[in-house]
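Morning, I've got a small favour to ask if you have a moment. I've been staring at a protein lately and its backbone has me curious. You're getting the sequence in one-letter code plus the fold written as tokens. I've dropped the whole record in just underneath, so have a look:
=====
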Amino acid sequence: MSVQEPLNGWNTKRKLLIVLAIAGAIAVLPVLYRVNWVGFGADSNKSVTVEEVINPRDGKIVKLTKTTEHFQSGKTLWDWLGLAGTLAIPIVLYQFQRSEKQQVDITSREEAMLAYFKHISELLIDKELKLLITKKQEDTNFKDPKLNALLDAAHACTLSILRRLDKDGERKGRIIRFLSDVGLINELNLEQAELTNANLNNVKLKGAKLGYAKLSNANLSLTDPRIIKRIKKALPTLSGCVDTGVLLYCADLQNADLSGRFLPSACFKSAILKNAILKNTDLSNADLSNADLRNTDLTDANLNGTDLTGADLTGAILPDGNKYELRQQLKQFGVGNC
């Protein structure tokens, strides 16, 4: 979900509230006109004056009391429109400033993300980070202080931009997709990365190091038929499997969607997967020991060889669609250490 979508939703609600407020005011005005003390209807005020005059007949002074009553017409439609316009000015100004601030914020985040892409691209090309990574992959004994320094720089920039994007899940997803596409996803240590609400749908996570990462409400589902077909074809040897070796130990994955994902041998040790969706997810030989799997949906998941030692499965839905009640239920799914 993009940031613009929630903004559009808020604008729609705001318009609806304004319409309801106007309609309510129109409905209430006739009632107010019938109540004298509120001052909406016609108004009048009386003044009493005492005058002393001389009676021409007997010459005596006589006091005359004179009562004068002034009437003022009730408020007209134009009066109320003028009042409404006056009251609306600060509200309109506030909404305008709020909209401007939101737009500036969106622009700022977009510029920050593009600056990040540019910086990482410079590290990969100008600073030869890509070349050094290739040498490391070709020679396991290859060591170069420059490589570590460049990876540290990329690591710091990545964690910083992810924190800055806050709840912008769409742009967070674009950051991780970029790292995956340029081959940095398995090189950077993204422990404690702020990926709440991130849209990682169909993003290749092979070798990703996401221990302690915040991934609550994130979308990590795999739905692209082409990717699924390619992974299934590679499963016998696991070579080329996009999600092999993913490290998600102690990660916060509450309410995350991992449906259709292929995560054989992934490490979810002590991860929080409460209310997560793991439908049709391949978790064969994965480490889910001491994981919080309460109310997790494991329908059609592959749990062959999965380590569930100490895992809390209270309320979880098992691969056969039944609710978890006893530990013995896990045996039929080939779970290891059950």
About this structure: Helices lie at 4-33, 77-125, 129-138, 145-164, 169-181, 225-234. The two ends are 38 Å apart (CA to CA). Residues 1-7 have pLDDT under 50 and may be disordered. The longest helix spans residues 77-125.
